[in-house]
Backbone:
C-alpha cells in the first residue's frame, strides 16, 4: 500500500517522439528511442524546472505560462534527438532552430486558432447582438477547426505511428500510477486515454478563452485578433490551474465530466501500441525515475 501512495504523489508526464517516448519527473527527463537495428537508446538528464528554482515562476497562472514555454522548447529538442537516433542522422537543432520552430508554431496557432475564427465570426456580427453569444460562436468555430486539424493529421501514416507511442506513454504512466509492475505485460490492460493528457489541456484552453475573450468587448477585427494574442498567456495559465485542480480531484463527478471531451478526443490522438513500443515507454519511465522506482519525489 505504501508503494502505491508514493507513486500517486509523483508527478510524471510524457510526450511521444519519433520511434520513442520522453518521460519527465520532477527532477529528471529521459528519452528512449528505438534505433533501426532494434536496440533502445536511453538518454537521461537531470533537470530542475524554473518553478523549483525561483518562487516567482511557481506562482499560480505564471507557472502555467512558464511550463508551456518550457514544454515547447524541451519537446522540440526531444523530437530532434529522436529523429537523429531513429534515422541515424547527425543533424541537430541549434538554439536558433528551436527558436524559429517555436515562432513558426506560434504563427500557425495564431493564424488557425485565433485570426481565422475571429475573421469568420466577424462576418456574422450583425446577427449576434450579445457579446457573449458572439464569443461562444467564435469559440465553437475555433474548436471545430481544431477538431478538423486533429482528424486530418490522424490519417497520416507517420503521425499514426507517433500516436501509437502516445498510447504507449499513457499506458506506462497508468501502470505507474496504479502501482503495477513497470512492464509491458502489466500495462496491456490499461486504456490509451489519460485524463492529464495535453490534448485535454488544449480543449480547456479553448473553453476558458470563450470566457476571457467575452471580457474584451467587440472592437474592430484587427484589434480583436491582437487583444486575443495578448491574453493568450493568461488563458493558458488559467487553463493550467483548472487542469491542476481537476487532476487533484480526478475521481470527483465534476472532474470526470470535464475530462470527457479530452478523453474522447484521444480516440484520434492515441493508438493501441504494440509490445515493442511499450518496452520503449517503460525504458523512458524508468530513466525518468532514476536509480529507484520511487525516487522521483526528491533529487538524488
Residues:
Amino acid at each position: 500500500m505504501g508503494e502505491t501512495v508514493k507513486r500517486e504523489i509523483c508527478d510524471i508526464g510524457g510526450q511521444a517522439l519519433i520511434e520513442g517516448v520522453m518521460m519527465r519527473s520532477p527532477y529528471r527527463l529521459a528519452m528512449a528511442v528505438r534505433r533501426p537495428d532494434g536496440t533502445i537508446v536511453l538518454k537521461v538528464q537531470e533537470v530542475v524546472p524554473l518553478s523549483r528554482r525561483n518562487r516567482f515562476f511557481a506562482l499560480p497562472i505564471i507557472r502555467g505560462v512558464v511550463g508551456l514555454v518550457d514544454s515547447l522548447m524541451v519537446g522540440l529538442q526531444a523530437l530532434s534527438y529522436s529523429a537523429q537516433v531513429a534515422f541515424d542522422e547527425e543533424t541537430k537543432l541549434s538554439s536558433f532552430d528551436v527558436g524559429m520552430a517555436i515562432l513558426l508554431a506560434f504563427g500557425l496557432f495564431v493564424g488557425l486558432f485565433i485570426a481565422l475564427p475571429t475573421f469568420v465570426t466577424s462576418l456574422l456580427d450583425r446577427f449576434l447582438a450579445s457579446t457573449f453569444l458572439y464569443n461562444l460562436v467564435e469559440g465553437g468555430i475555433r474548436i471545430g477547426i481544431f477538431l478538423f486539424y486533429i482528424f486530418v493529421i490522424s490519417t497520416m501514416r507517420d503521425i499514426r505511428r507517433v500516436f501509437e507511442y502516445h498510447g504507449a506513454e499513457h499506458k506506462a504512466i497508468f501502470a505507474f500510477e496504479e502501482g503495477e509492475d513497470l512492464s509491458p505485460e502489466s500495462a496491456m490492460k490499461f486504456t490509451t486515454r489519460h485524463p492529464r493528457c495535453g490534448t485535454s489541456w488544449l480543449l480547456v484552453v479553448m473553453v476558458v478563452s470563450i470566457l476571457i475573450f467575452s471580457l474584451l468587448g467587440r472592437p474592430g477585427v484587427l484589434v480583436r485578433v491582437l487583444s486575443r494574442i495578448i491574453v493568450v498567456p493568461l488563458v493558458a495559465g488559467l487553463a493550467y490551474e483548472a487542469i491542476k485542480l481537476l487532476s487533484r480531484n480526478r475521481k470527483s463527478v465534476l472532474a470526470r465530466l470535464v475530462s470527457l471531451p479530452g478523453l474522447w478526443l484521444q480516440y484520434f490522438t492515441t493508438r493501441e501500441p504494440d509490445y515493442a513500443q511499450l518496452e520503449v515507454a517503460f525504458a523512458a519511465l524508468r530513466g525518468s525515475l532514476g536509480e529507484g522506482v520511487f525516487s522521483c519525489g526528491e533529487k538524488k
